[in-house]
Design a protein that fits this description.
The structure is a homodimer. With about 150 residues, the first copy, chain A, is mainly α. Helix content of chain A is about 50%, strand content about 10%. Chain A binds a DNA duplex (30 and 30 nucleotides) through α3.
DNA sequence: GCAAATCCGAGTGATGCGGTCGGAATGGAA
DNA sequence: TTCCATTCCGACCGCATCACTCGGATTTGC
């Protein structure tokens, strides 16, 4: 259950792009320094985001990157999938592919439920939500229960 | 967002233990063949589970492993934490430890919300639930929405 | 004392993570 | 047409983690 640096960077980069003026593209160096991300790694990530259709790019001077869609139509799930693949995997397989036998049979449903609850957050929250500082209220409700902040 | 083989094996092993008679301990080889887990790896895992207090053990002939607590008081979260550490990490840190600045500031709350929703499943489902094939109804509700089984 | 089991730590091959680097292609301006 | 800023692309690299294995040492029951 680990969010990689790449996924974290990807989301932050996209959020940063959402905060820019729509007219002109944003340079990699800009985004990198704004979000404190290693430049050449970010270059890498943005290329991946482009080939997944999340961002567009322009070469040459005055070039750079911008969002391919309006920020309020782009979910965090889309961004993360673009760089990490499937949201959740169990031993490298998707939850619906794995099979258990015997007393652990119900386990598959647990993983499915897990993924469903992950999606509830990541599919709903858009890049615009994060950039604008206004998360959906049911997501916010999850963070308000103070036990949510406890370590365990 | 990846569930490792170790975590999967740990849960299955514990579920298998829950399905045994309470009187006598269960041998590693038994559990391994029942759940199709590599024996020496499982040995490893059970040792970890024991040092976390999830299972107890007995050495010598007639020895083996059994649950340290009633199966209906043991959550999947406890088992997973015993072998994997914290349930969710972002770039190796816990969600409440990381700090963002600028336009990505709200991201921390997203990760917190994510974890909260993960916990909703893993803290609630007990080993007894899985072994008995009766998951809590709100967890089951998550799997009933047919979109839960879709790939995306 | 013997045999059956757990205990324990070290080791191992493959894979992925978190980047870096060197150029090639592209586009705008002079 | 010639710079030069920028993206594009693939290769590479060190390190950690993953998924295991192995060889004994220790405990326990008979």
């Amino acid at each position: 259950m680990h969010v990689t640096a790449k996924a974290d960077y990807a989301v932050r980069a996209v959020v940063e792009l959402a905060g820019s003026s729509q007219g002109s593209p944003r340079k990699v160096d800009d985004v990198a320094t704004a979000q404190n991300i290693p430049v050449s790694f970010l270059e890498n990530i943005l290329t991946q985001l482009r080939s997944s259709g999340v961002v567009r790019s322009q070469r040459g001077p005055e070039g750079g990157y911008w969002l391919a869609q309006p920020a309020d139509e782009l979910s965090l799930a889309q961004v993360i999938r673009a760089v990490e693949g499937p949201l959740v995997g169990v031993r490298g397989q998707r939850p619906e592919e794995i099979e258990y036998s015997g007393s652990a049979e119900q386990l598959q449903q647990v993983w499915i439920a897990l993924r469903a609850n992950l999606r509830k957050v990541l599919e709903e929250v858009t890049v615009a939500d994060v950039a604008g500082g206004k998360l959906p209220k049911d997501v916010l409700a999850l963070t308000n229960a103070e036990e949510a902040w406890q370590t365990r």
